[in-house]
Amino acid sequence: MAATETDDLLRFITCGSVDDGKSTLLGRLLHDAGMLPEDHLATLACDSARQHPDAPGKLDFALLTDGLAAEREQGITIDVAYRYFHTAHRSFIVADCPGHEQYTRNMATGASTASLAVVLVDARKGLLAQTRRHSYICALMGIGQVILAVNKMDLVGFDPTVFEGIRAAYQALADQLGIARVVAIPVVATDGDHIATRSPRMPWHIGPTLLQALEEAPLPQPVDGDFRLPIQLVVRPHQDYRGYAGIVEAGCVQVGDEVLVQPGKTTARVATLHVAGEPADAARRGQAVMLTLQPDVQAGRGQVLASAGAPCPEASQFACHLLWMGEEPMLPGRAYDLLQGTGRVRARITAIKHKVDVHTQAPLAARRLELNEVGACNLDLDHDIAFEPFTSNPALGGFVLVDLQSRATVACGRLDFALRRSANIHWQHMDVDKAIRSHAKAQKPLCVWFTGLSGSGKSTIANLLEQRLTALGHHTYLLDGDNVRHGLNNDLGFTAEARVENIRRLAEVAHLMVDAGLVVLVCAISPFAAEREFARERFEPGEFVEVYIDTPLAECELRDPKGLYRKARKGLLANFTGIDSPYEPPADADVHLMTLDASPQLQADRLAAWLAGRITP
Amino acid sequence: MAKPLTLLASGEGKNDLATAFRAPRRAFPELACSAMTGPAMPHLDTLEAEAIHVIREVAAGFRKPVMLYSIGKDSSVLLHLLRKAFAPAPPPIPLLHVDTTWKFRQMYALRERVAAAPDITLLVHTNVEALAQGISPLVHGAKVHTELMKTVALRQALDRHGFDAAIGGARRDEEISRAKERIFSFRNVQHRWDPKAQRPELWHLYNTGLTPGETARAFPLSNWTELDIWRYIRREGIEVVPLYFATERPVIERNGAWLVVDDERLVPRAGEQVQVRRVRFRTLGCYPLTAAIESNATTLDALIDELIDARTSERQGRVIDRDPEASMERKKQEGYF
């Protein structure tokens, strides 16, 4: 049957534990709905025979969607597969999600664009850990309705009491998670019972078949809220046209409407409007628009155009829930890029309030989040953003975190609410500023950041450098990582988390000293590239110089001025950089000193000469 | 000293306590209706808006993007969307045709019309080294031809121009490994795809950051089906190559497929007869590698009706897909689009 051109579209996922039969269910659904082309069926028959020489003539529907060679070899689903079909009433996009815990991030990818989940449960096993995990992720991603397919009913003798027990258990879980609508269906995916046709083997089921349930599922009916347009792109073909392009994420807009550019206080009126390339008078939620403003104010990607009468809240600190998807654990204090709306802003997790046991929803204490763990955290951004809580607008309340080095997407999450702290702490105005202070000292302030292994010669060279700079009349301070650990940082150890916090504090102190107009020399192993990058970001361009003291590990061990390498090798000192804790050498330090090439005195002379031009006003 | 007090009363410590001691019945509050994902619009409008969004993300996120243009129906739709994405400004992204020199003459004719449009920059690249060696699909077969004239040629073109992102018209419903690919898909410095380590892609938040040497592919038509493409072509009045419509054409039957004799390079082998049949194409590639189907669909309406009743898939006519040693996944790993 043909779908009409004005039909609606339902996006859903299939999920559940491994071996509960997701791919089989989906294959059977496509087959029974008449949506498998003959050549695909022929290929499937051929593939099935090759994979299962012991079961001639039986179709292995999992092979329809497990399209990667590795998936076929291992007989598992690694990544989401998308399939497309339609019935007389509706078009469907279905994402077949992997069941293994290790591929949870791929499952989340599929769930994020869906409005319904088909959750599979094996009638013999009931709700498993993965059933609960997937349901939790569905709720986290904002999926509000579930079709519970209780599969393999033939293996429990089509017993309605087994079905009812699982249905009731799942309903309790759904209530706990805030999943509003659950439709439960007893099925046998391999044979097609209650998939597209009613099963004579389970006449006691009076509810819909799976296909009926999908066709009848209520589509989310968007109620128009207030106008929101995250600016995706500024299009400026010539001097007389400045177009703001983006998707209307809420509400509607007309030519002449007053909008606020957020974050900020600038308002303007919509002068012209294009919807999907055509001139228009009005646009509404979901449409791709290009508009111009009168007066022609300047705004950029990442800002939001919002109804002037009902703007978005703005904040830089948030309570959030996030799913950690990085191979490396999430460390509080480390800087990441946060993508939200169309913006990108530097962000840090300031606190993990607790992680969530996704099986019981119980909050657990945590100091870091590992791959596939969910946590309730506090977020601190470099500057304010316009946002809305995820529950009222996922487009402005959903975010991902990106690792600064690998550019990998390491987390996804939802902004729950702004922390009021950010609204109540204001910057106190100071009449004497950095420019005046540095003018008084007749120098340009600077942070010189020495990084390198323990024993590489950082402190020696920095010490000599400070002598030379002072002799030239400069105002300096040497901020030594070890010395600071005796006071300000005496609560920190040497775990990865503590090292991140150690560097954050050093960077903040150095930042204050640069603000005071000083030339600050910072000596710290600072082993992680991400933290050095964070330190650099705290300063204005030209105020930060990274000096890599490059001494081979063997040479450092030979020198061992504090006897630390010997202790570490004996196992008396854990988390020692270079031994059992990594050092990430800078790829593009401003200055790269190979200490084996020249004496510390000569290195300090060279460095002083190189810095002279940067310090002298 | 009012300030520290304010901090204490409203700081995060208070929130911590509240969450720790109040066990919420629900992990997440129910979403308001307006917040749920889903269409507020007819299906085609939703797909159109999503595709425009992806094209604009490419323009915003990359230094030097390009759009691959292969003259087929998907490319025609892509070009139409490219113009819409930036209207009333001209598209800031050039087109690139990787030319195997084996396209149908009517395809070249359409390409020239597109290239002549004042708002379009169209680059053409051919693997001239392979061409000089006389590589031909008729002599060397589909696998070698595709590898050298498409996969290698594409890598050459991307490297030569320094493009860091390429927009393509691939759709997930075309083929089983494409069904697995993200909308933004990344390639290492050798243009290789690692299907086992794809970036998570959440909502419509595309992480377009590249590490040194990495490049990206973007597929705005990922969620379109063949039927969506044709309905959109009809709705928007988009020009496509006439080969998609049935008419009488000279054909020979080879390996169970109808090949259209488009020029003198396709010479009938012993036992092969040039016949005239009423045929059209569902998909267009190099003409000796693309099979025609018998059809009476001479109009868009007839074509769409035929498609709705079709019992076979679109890529059935692609000779290259039948070679198990050259599966799409393997070709993509080697840098094929």
Mind telling me the CATH superfamily name of the largest domain in chain A?
A: P-loop containing nucleotide triphosphate hydrolases
CATH class label of the largest domain in chain A: Alpha Beta
Q: Spell out the helices and strands of chain B N to C.
A: HHHEHEHEHHEEEHEEEEHH
Mean pLDDT reading of chain B:
81
Strand composition percent of chain B: 5-15%
| Percent of sequence in beta strands of chain A | 25-35%
Terminal-residue CA separation of chain B: 65 Å
* Tally of helical segments of chain B: 10
Shape descriptor of chain A reads globular
Ends apart, CA distance between termini of chain A: 78 Å
Assembly classification:
heterodimer
**CATH topology name of the largest domain in chain A:** Rossmann fold
Tell me roughly what share of residues is in helical segments of chain A: 25-40%
Task: Tell me about this structure.
The complex is a heterodimer of chains A (617) and B (337). Chain A has 617 residues and is an alpha/beta fold. Chain A folds into four domains: 9-216, 3-Layer(aba) Sandwich (Rossmann fold); 228-307, Translation factors (Elongation Factor Tu (Ef-tu), domain 3), CATH 2.40.30.10; 317-421, Elongation Factor Tu (Ef-tu), domain 3 (Beta Barrel); 434-615, 3-Layer(aba) Sandwich (Rossmann fold), CATH 3.40.50. Chain A is 28% helix and 29% strand. In chain A, strands 7, 8, 9, 11, 12, 13, 15 and 16 form an eight-stranded antiparallel beta sheet that branches. A six-stranded mixed beta sheet of chain A has the order 2-3-1-4-5-6, with helices on both faces. In chain A, β18 (335-340) and β19 (343-356) form a beta hairpin. Chain A is globular, with a radius of gyration of 30 Å. The relative contact order of chain A is 0.07. Chain B is α/β, with parallel strands linked by helices. Chain B has ten helices and ten strands. Chain B has helices at 2-10, 12-21, 43-61, 73-86, 105-116, 128-132, 137-161, 226-236, 300-308, 328-333, and strands at residues 65-68, 95-98, 122-125, 165-167, 184-187, 215-218, 247-254, 257-260, 275-280, 293-294. A six-stranded mixed beta sheet of chain B has the order 3-2-1-4-6-5. In chain B, strands 8-7-9-10 form a four-stranded antiparallel beta sheet, with no helix packed on it. In chain B, β7 (247-254) and β8 form a beta hairpin. The longest helix of chain B has 25 residues, at 137-161. Chain B starts with a helix and ends with a helix. Chains A and B meet through β1, α2, β2, α5 and α6 of A and α1, α2, α3, α4 and α8 of B.
